[in-house]
Amino acid sequence: MTGFVEGVLTSIPTWAVYLAIFGLPFLEASLFLGFVFPGETALVLGGVLASQGRLSVVVVIALAIVGAITGDAIGYAIGRRFGPGLQSSRLGQLIGEHRWRASEKFLHRRGGPAVFLGRFTALLRALVPSAAGMAKLPYRTFAIWNALGGSAWAAGFVIAGYLAGKSYKKVEGYLGRGALVLTAIVVLSFVVVHVVRRRRANANGSSTH
């Protein structure tokens, strides 16, 4: 299993990985891709590949930060341009009224810092920038918190992937590949259970509205 994963990763062109590291955080808020594919997945992967010498960790962090900040800026511009009508559009209805309401409440409760804090939750990361634009939060305020949140979020996940990749070989030496595969299966099981529970909770929440 380990060899298969490594083979797949090495077969991906470097430019394509760099593009994904920039593109996925960029598209999270600008096209609401965060509901389908969380951007931090690409950042962790980029950090792991950088730890193996396949990518430059400096370039990975820079691309991740720029992608995150510019993507949210476009999300803000979309919300500012289309206003509440965005929620009644086909895409807005697909997102769901309860999700919009949750992001708006969070924004009204926290103000500017909501842009920073929302960066670390998938739902809020995708919607808060547009909600901030719709609420006409001053762009200067938005830009400051967006820069802080985007930088901390992007750098944090890339570094986490980098450190995980560095420690992988040490752990592999202590436990052997068989134990690592077993550990990965256990971790994956916990992740699947967590995702299923969260989807059920979201479904129950939407059914009450």
Descriptive key words:
209 residues, 84% helix, globular
Describe this structure in words.
- This protein has 209 residues and is mainly alpha-helical.
- It is built from eleven helices and no strands.
- Helix 2 (14-30) packs parallel to helix 4 (57-82), helix 7 crosses helix 9 (122-134) and helix 10 runs antiparallel to helix 11 (177-207).
- The longest helix has 37 residues, at 139-175.
Summary, kept brief:
The chain has 209 residues and is mainly alpha-helical. It has helices at 2-11, 14-30, 40-51, 57-82, 85-88, 90-95, 97-110, 113-118, 122-134, 139-175, 177-207. Helix 2 (14-30) runs parallel beside helix 4 (57-82) and helix 3 packs antiparallel against helix 4.
Topology:
Layout: H1 2-11, H2 14-30, H3 40-51, H4 57-82, H5 85-88, H6 90-95, H7 97-110, H8 113-118, H9 122-134, H10 139-175, H11 177-207
Helix pairs in contact: 2-3, 2-4, 3-4, 3-10, 4-9, 4-10, 7-9, 10-11
State the total count of DSSP E strands.
Answer: 0
Please tell me what the overall shape is. globular
- Strand fraction equals under 5%
Helicity range: over 70%
- Average of per-residue pLDDT values: 78
How are helices and strands ordered from N to C? HHHHHHHHHHH
Give the termini distance in whole angstroms: 44 Å
Taking all Cα atoms into account, the compactness measure Rg is: 19 Å
The number of distinct helices, counting runs of at least 4 residues, comes to 11
Main pleated sheet: none
Uncertain spans: 1-5
What would you call the structural class? mainly alpha
